Fold these 2 entries.
Entry 1:
Amino acid sequence: MSEVYIPVVLGTAREGRRSEAVAKYVHDIVSATESVRTELVDVRDHLMEATVNDSAESELADKWRAIADEADGFVLVSPEYNHSFPGELKMLIDRAFPEYKHKVFGVCGVSNGPWGGIRMAETIRSVLITLNAVVSNRTVMFSNVNELFDEGGNITDESYTEKVEGLMEDVVWYAQALKTAREAA
Amino acid sequence: MSEVYIPVVLGTAREGRRSEAVAKYVHDIVSATESVRTELVDVRDHLMEATVNDSAESELADKWRAIADEADGFVLVSPEYNHSFPGELKMLIDRAFPEYKHKVFGVCGVSNGPWGGIRMAETIRSVLITLNAVVSNRTVMFSNVNELFDEGGNITDESYTEKVEGLMEDVVWYAQALKTAREAA
Amino acid sequence: MSEVYIPVVLGTAREGRRSEAVAKYVHDIVSATESVRTELVDVRDHLMEATVNDSAESELADKWRAIADEADGFVLVSPEYNHSFPGELKMLIDRAFPEYKHKVFGVCGVSNGPWGGIRMAETIRSVLITLNAVVSNRTVMFSNVNELFDEGGNITDESYTEKVEGLMEDVVWYAQALKTAREAA
Amino acid sequence: MSEVYIPVVLGTAREGRRSEAVAKYVHDIVSATESVRTELVDVRDHLMEATVNDSAESELADKWRAIADEADGFVLVSPEYNHSFPGELKMLIDRAFPEYKHKVFGVCGVSNGPWGGIRMAETIRSVLITLNAVVSNRTVMFSNVNELFDEGGNITDESYTEKVEGLMEDVVWYAQALKTAREAA
């Protein structure tokens, strides 16, 4: 298998965000996945100034477009706000378009309730298909996140490892299949 | 009928935004609606700085929460980006929650293609219900917006007036019904 | 408060359906709700013959339209098949339209996994708003349904009672508010 | 390129259905597409009797599962009822599951209004991803269908040919890419 580049994107910028621990945990598993090169992309590092500023906009937008262009797939780690994604994640996604074509997205939802961001994972599907991208159905839901990590930042429920590995199995399958076809075209 | 307060929210901050002309046009009709008091809320005036800043955050958040608390309903005017809403509109919405309970939302979609933001209007429904709010089905779609207004900012297709008035008929019906019930509770 | 009529609709016709026990349980709570008159509507009793048959169609359609017309609101009890509703429930819903206007829907999801039909409850929202209806956000998710009822058909987790009562509180609030406004119009 | 099998599925059973002319038109274009073998599947031929009947169920279900198993992709032609798909199409889809894995769906929407079934095409996305399938973004919307075909059943707006060919370009690209990867696995 040829190497594929699959960045992990942390999709919330809120203070006190619990998804950061999840993103690091997911990033560790992605890093350990055979044939996968990755990086942790923090939406905070991509936020524009409030007042739209062309030069800042284009510099940050170019930075994201370069990552998206190089990527063969993406793993989004995002909380659910009002059954949907954070606005800042949508702003990041909207900054590119042709860069996503025929690539794959995996989704990890996070919430502090029992449902693990499952509705964010559902409602973002329509957006991701619109990017001419593929969405893996192997979504992982991180529920009750406030109790999920110990003080050292280690996950307390080991069953998540298998779930994320299952997601990665599907994401890598798609990433390889689509990369092969893109390069043959 | 008692007076209801229904602000019109312009949901995009992008430079060159065509939705601004639509929002002003919709605002004029809402202003002329019997028993309705309104205001044009521009999401640009509510954007936070990129780096999350608590004091700025809470001042701007308080400003929006005060508007939302006073409102009996809302008319959103928003373009469609990738079949969904702009991130900045979601950030604004997410800043309040109890303020929306048992109030009504009307939606006007905007696009420069033939479909008029119809998918944004569809996919935002789930978010709005989550706010414990009601969504009118009388959505108005502003298609081909680049040619819809003349140089003086006047709409060139008069049929939109009837559509927005139809939306307002339903929004005011709900706003009155829900206000009466909220005050009786 | 004036009486409101809120039928409970069992939305699956599959053999061995577990949602039947849930529908009966929900129906019992709805029956015991102050100011509410109800009935259990089984989608099985409303299925048409496979080959479209006009006379059968219109007799069954009329039966449903009469119920929908009389109703002030509805509580749907439905499993989730492939993150959405059963086809037979959609066929029933599509048989009426003006009958739903300015009425309220509550939703109870059912699944044998941990997520309790939560995605069915999410994806049906768009359909229900299209009926010019209101959707309560107080959705109840019945998870792990295979273990939820004992051999006598009694629920083994009493916490569901409070959840369904919470849903009914919101459904009745809307049903009363909208009925008052419909009758005043 | 190896041959791929991509049946066209007509998703409504209603009397007087206008989607039938669209399905035949789409089927002609799919038939003429290089490297594609196809067939027109009519949901009417797959309807079960109203009362769930095991033997009928399993014979019809087996028939659909055999088609789905052999297929490399699918083109759905479906009207929009209440912003979503017909119930009978959902019943057909729900009869298989592993057969869809890592295959592609294209969607053609039909309506007699201006929006061409665009919301059906949007809301079915979540279902199709749940099948572990891929959804092409090159959806084709057939608007104002009552005036779209002449008395001889010929389309009166030739611009649709290019749109359906564009959809097929993407569907075949995915079908080939995924078939290659499935066979290599």
Note: Strands of chain B lie at 4-5, 8-10, 36-37, 40-42, 73-79, 104-110, 134-135, 140-142.
Entry 2:
Amino acid sequence: MKFLIIGGDAAGMSAASKAKRLNPDIDVTVLEMTQDVSYSACGMPYHIADPQRDMDELIVRKAEVFREKNKINLLTGHMATKIDPGAKCVEGVRLPGKEPFSFEYDKLLIATGAEPSKPAVPGIDHPDVMVLKNLEQGKRIRHHLDTHPVKTAAIMGMGYIALEMSEAFVKRGIHTILVKPGDTFLPWMKKDLADVVLEEVTSHGIEVHAGCKVNEIRKEEDGFHLVCDDQTLCADLLLVATGVNPLSRMASDAGLETGPSGAISVDEYLMTSDEHIYAAGDCADAINIITGKKSWIPLALRANRAGWAVADHLCGEPVALPGICGTSVFKVLDLEVARTGLNEKEAQTANFSPVEVTVKTRSMAHGQPGSTPIYVSMVADKTSDRLLGVQMVGKKGVAHRINAAAVALSAKMTVAQFFQTDLAYAPPFGPVWDPLLTAANQLLKKL
Amino acid sequence: MKFLIIGGDAAGMSAASKAKRLNPDIDVTVLEMTQDVSYSACGMPYHIADPQRDMDELIVRKAEVFREKNKINLLTGHMATKIDPGAKCVEGVRLPGKEPFSFEYDKLLIATGAEPSKPAVPGIDHPDVMVLKNLEQGKRIRHHLDTHPVKTAAIMGMGYIALEMSEAFVKRGIHTILVKPGDTFLPWMKKDLADVVLEEVTSHGIEVHAGCKVNEIRKEEDGFHLVCDDQTLCADLLLVATGVNPLSRMASDAGLETGPSGAISVDEYLMTSDEHIYAAGDCADAINIITGKKSWIPLALRANRAGWAVADHLCGEPVALPGICGTSVFKVLDLEVARTGLNEKEAQTANFSPVEVTVKTRSMAHGQPGSTPIYVSMVADKTSDRLLGVQMVGKKGVAHRINAAAVALSAKMTVAQFFQTDLAYAPPFGPVWDPLLTAANQLLKKL
């Protein structure tokens, strides 16, 4: 069987490796546009931050290993451009020379991922404007910092990549400016919690310009000029981190169904609307476990898991993926910021009757020195008493705590059920009543 | 209504406070033997460790506050000695003078807790032998360390209190000896994981004598002599930390049913076999959620929760407690050690068909410096595919991670369901595949 994969990142290489593990007779070919496969993309900000770290440390497995050990026909520098579902064939060009190629398949996996979405601002396509999605782009930023005296960096966007990169710049002693048109910092987050993050960011000297639309980007001799309505922001380096879009054009051109945000529609086995084509990773959608509806939340665990599930299905050992809760965590400076499930607004949109509570508790038991505040926002449905979502912010004890709530969401627990779960306690790690239980208890009073 | 409570610790004071909150008209009397109520008993080792910390910092709420603000008739120095369920009356004596008292009740809560269990070794009752259960005993140890040049401390026992106290002694520069008759260090723990803890303990210079029965304790001028078969261990201070027994004698003398380990039998509302008497906290048993059977695992969260549930039931707002998973965590030196649910042997005893897997993963994503190993042992039932228990050891990322597994146990998830949960990922906090998911994936292969 010819199993062809477009894209050699998390989903693509997970599917390729697992298919070969399950059935060594399958002929697996991967078309990867760049020269890099299997690296920790999410780790790039931390390596960019530290001149002592080699960006190549992020490579989990080298291309040669996939080729020699895993017997995968891994073709880097191969850019697919067209899928012909009728002929079961993928066309493309070899880079940099653009020699055309064509591959037939029995089964195809589209794992093209996502691409940075750039707002339509004049000047944004200037070749010196940086983005951060793949390793090449990460290396470019790092090289630039290593070889240029960057005093000020501007970042368009305030999502988690923008915040992680602002930390990286601060660590390198670079004055950092965050700018975006929307006037709410972390709009998806409960304001009380978002304010804690904002305070952390500004207290480290980062300039936050929310509600500031960049009308034009000019690259002058002295650097970038970001022309806004009331002011012009200047920086030696400009990073655009205004989110990503799914790379699904090739799929929709081939007639495959797409869903939320234009991501490729897949079922619980990652099958698209064409029975010979799978899609997985950041280019594909997923069932949101809480709403039961399709959603597009591109994250690394889902990509890896979806890649495996494609191989499982392909090899006759299907595993249905129940979907995602949208669990995520990021670090910004000394804070851990995490969420799972829906916020109030998302719950409303999904036709729940949301009730929310915000509590401030502590990272350690009473009397333990070094305890720091933990903020929890918890949302439930007044009609069903179901837990719908949790957000947390704190200096310690947030990143892994969120997983207890994520499991509760997967199990579709009510708040009362979650409140009765038997969580761990020891003074150095938290209060007797875990912050999640304290929040659940307060929320119960509103249900 | 006259609500009488024997014991002013976690369960007793939780019940007292919540009953007053729910119904200020209830007449609440608490009989507490010692002078201390509402303190963080679990925090004592950390305060004993640090000469700069005041032990009274551990007091969460002072007796006067309960009396004046909460309007609880809190009687310290009152030792109950007899329950008369027929007359609905409790007798006892005031300390230190031993004047007799007698209180009638409409509803009684027995929250007498547990007491250190001492092995029958000649000399163990010497007044200089220390135990650590209540604040008075904690203060005594601390005062001794502050006022005596203790060079060597011996601890009989190797449970979590023994280990937490060995850390406290090491932090004070005291050479520490752990001794117990059983030859397995942490016998409830998978050997691979127990070995990691043992290595941590011995690498800090702590002497571990497992399989060493103390036949006699002699207090000489130069300190304690612990006479064993093959050797005599000498120490300036001796702490006995060989576990606890439920303080249920008064209850069984009154004809109340008792269950595992002699703990007072209660239903999901904490009702004993007498309809006017509740029991809660370390003196009472609980349903084990995994086995569905009664078990006795005295821990702080359950005590607090059970106290609240007594008040809820008493005030006509009953909340049934589903039970416990036996989730616990402790810190020893630089390690976090956690468990939830059953180990292989317990699973066998409960008539499951246990399958176990042990994995070694990492606390951070690939390429992140400072990552440390995390060891996970996971047990499932081969017949039902149900997750039965998890143990974890690591320098970081263990204490809160265990809660995800605890919630999965509460939800009675299969390993396959747990493996599909959407857990958080960011490079500073873990690998893409959380250690728990990696263990679940390996375990799935054995099911």
Note: DSSP finds twelve helices and 24 strands in chain A.
